[in-house]
Design a protein that fits this description.
This protein is mainly α. It has helices at 2-13, 22-30, 33-39, 48-63, 71-110. The chain has five helices and no strands. It starts with a helix and ends with a helix. The mean pLDDT is 87.
């Protein structure tokens, strides 16, 4: 699945994109108040947490072709991987700390 996901987004992640919103700003200034209310053109009114949640669901469903029934299993796996990463970070920090002090401690005791 990871290979398939990588292939899907490869074009977008390996190219540089430059976006402008000049036309959008111009249109926003020109439309009437009635059209502004009808088309909900103001992105400052967008509730971003809900948008991101819907975006992720859409990517899962339409890009990765995954069933919504797999969401609970995916959440469990994500939590396990999160704690595995945190455990590895703590382990690496402790190993770095140990190496640092085992190298510095003999130098300080010789003085």
């Amino acid at each position: 699945k990871m290979h398939k996901a990588t292939k899907v987004v490869e074009f977008f992640t390996t190219n540089e994109w430059e976006w402008t919103n000049d036309n959008t700003l111009s249109l926003c200034k020109e439309i009437t108040e009635q059209d502004r209310n009808l088309f909900n053109f103001d992105l400052s009114q967008l509730h971003w947490p809900n948008y991101i949640k819907d975006y992720v669901k859409g990517v899962r469903q339409y890009v990765f072709k995954e069933d919504d029934a797999s969401i609970p299993d995916s959440i469990v796996l994500l939590r396990k991987m999160y704690w595995l990463e945190k455990g590895l970070q703590i382990f690496m920090f402790l190993m770095f700390w140990r190496v640092l002090f085992t190298r510095l401690l003999p130098i300080e005791t010789d003085l």
